[in-house]
Every structure is written in C-alpha cells, then in structure tokens.
Design brief:
With 271 residues, the chain is mainly beta. The chain has two domains: 201 residues, Jelly Rolls, CATH 2.60.120.430; 66 residues, Immunoglobulin-like (Sandwich), CATH 2.60.40.3080. 9% of the residues lie in helices and 44% in strands. Strands 1, 2, 4, 5, 7, 10 and 12 form a seven-stranded antiparallel beta sheet that branches.
Length: 271
C-alpha cells in the first residue's frame, strides 16, 4: 500500500485546465490531479526547483536511457481541448550539460483509437541547448499538429477536434543521445508565444459564422468571400455556397468555412 501511495505521489501534476495570463497550465508538479506518468525508457521522480531558476516549487526529474527507444511522459488532462485554440506547448527544462535532446510530442484522444486520433510533431528542430541551465522550450502546433488536424477534418468534418485530452512528450526519442537526466516544469498550452495579450493566435478569425432564419451565413472581416460546405452530423455533405447557404430542415449541422487562407470547421444549430 505504501508503494502505491509513493507511486501516485511522484506523478502528481496539475492537469485540470487552469487558466493563466497567457495560456493554460497543464502540469506544474505542485498539485494532485490524475494522471501523469513516465513510461518505456524514461523514469520520473520529483525534486525541488533551485532558487532563482525558471522553474518553481516541485519539478519533475526524468532519467532517460541512451537512444530512448520509445520512452515518454504522458499528461492525462481532466478536460479535453481543441489544439486550434492554442499556438503550442511551453515548458521549462534543465538537462545535463553537453546533452542536446530534441523534443518530440504527440496529442492523443483516450476516447478513440489513436491510429485515427493521434497527431504528432516528429521534427527534431526544437532541442535543449546543452548548457546545463534552465531554458524555456516552445513546441509550436503550426508546423505539424495543425496541418495534420486540418487533414483529418477535411476527410471527416465530424471528427471531434475538440476532444484531445492527452499530451505525450518524448525528449531525446530515437535521437542518439547518451543516458541523461532532464527536469521539466510549468508545462502549459499557450495562447501566444509572442506577447502577454493572451490572444489565441490560431483562432483569430477571418470571418464569423452565424445562423439566421434557416440560413447559415459567414461574414468576412476583411471583405473576403467565404466558401461554405454544410454536412450532416453523420458526415454527409448536404449543401454548399458562398457567404450564405439556405437550410430547409432545422437541426444540428457541421459547417466547413474557408476564405482561401483560413479554414474553420464548427458545429451550428439551425432553428
């Protein structure tokens, strides 16, 4: 029983979606929420942030086997999120001096087969510098995550893009690094990497979608025409048009709208 308690205590994280000024805290290792854990070629213990560092309070301390063939850290959120509401993930990290592990990450849905739902960024461009000091790490959704999600929505407009509830982070995965130790803290979903406004840059809409007297309408904020495709909740395309589509039957529909630069897929109710 004592071992079970110790195991749970070591993996305590803030995984309820707790709003901050410029993002949402998903794991700071200071409060108890289910569930966060390491697996495979990684193990997790806890430590205390050094005074004056970028970290604070309790931190996660990970040991990573050489070459890390599949080890990672999973954060299971209490509430699902839509990746399109955020620009990416930020965290602070400190690793052994001289090691430069890349950060691979995935977003998953526990309610679906992840061969269908998983989206990932398997790009080695974001690395710890090897300084041995605490550093900020930003993992953008723009390069791999959002394009992958757009493809899923293009093939199935009913795909539940707002139901991602699991984040997996894999430092040094298949990256030919030696055995190393890395500490992480303050893992957040970010509205913006650029300033403190808290504006969700991925959701700065180019248009607004509204319903009016049995019609679905889109208004381009920049005067652009907006192409509309309307689907049933079963995924069947039932209508299309520009700026406005008349729907003969009241109900719930999926609307895919694009102005040529920005695409938005959302559920609407026609009354």
């Amino acid at each position: 029983m004592k071992q079970i308690f110790t195991f749970l205590f070591l993996f305590m994280c803030v995984v309820a979606l707790k709003a901050q000024q410029n993002g949402v805290m998903v794991c700071d290792f200071d409060n108890a929420y289910p569930t966060a854990y390491a697996f495979g070629d990684m193990t997790l213990t806890e430590g205390t942030a050094p005074d004056g560092s970028l970290a604070s309070g309790t931190i996660g301390v990970f040991t990573v086997n050489a070459d890390n063939e599949g080890g990672g850290f999973i954060i299971q959120l209490d509430s699902p999120f839509d990746p399109r509401d955020f620009v990416g993930i930020s965290l602070v990290a400190q690793a052994d001096a001289g090691v430069t592990p890349a950060f691979i990450f995935k977003l998953e849905q526990t309610t679906q087969d992840n061969s269908v739902a998983q989206i990932q960024d398997w790009d080695y461009k974001v690395r710890y510098s090897g300084s041995g000091d605490w550093e900020p790490i930003n993992l953008s959704f723009a390069d791999e995550i959002l394009p992958a999600l757009d493809k899923k929505l293009a093939s199935d407009p009913t795909f539940p893009a707002d139901q991602y509830d699991e984040i997996e982070i894999n430092p040094g995965a298949w990256d030919h690094q030696p055995y190393f130790t890395i500490s992480l803290d303050n893992i957040m979903l970010m509205y913006s990497f650029d300033d403190n406004t808290g504006i969700p840059l991925t959701k700065v809409a180019a248009f607004a979608i509204v319903t009016d007297n049995g019609a679905i309408k889109a208004t381009g904020f920049n005067g652009n025409q907006v192409s509309l495709k309307v689907y049933s909740t079963a995924g069947q395309e039932i209508a299309e048009g520009v700026n406005s589509v008349q729907i003969g039957v009241k109900g719930v529909y999926i609307v895919k709208a694009t102005d040529g630069k920005v695409t938005n897929t959302q559920k609407v109710v026609v009354r």
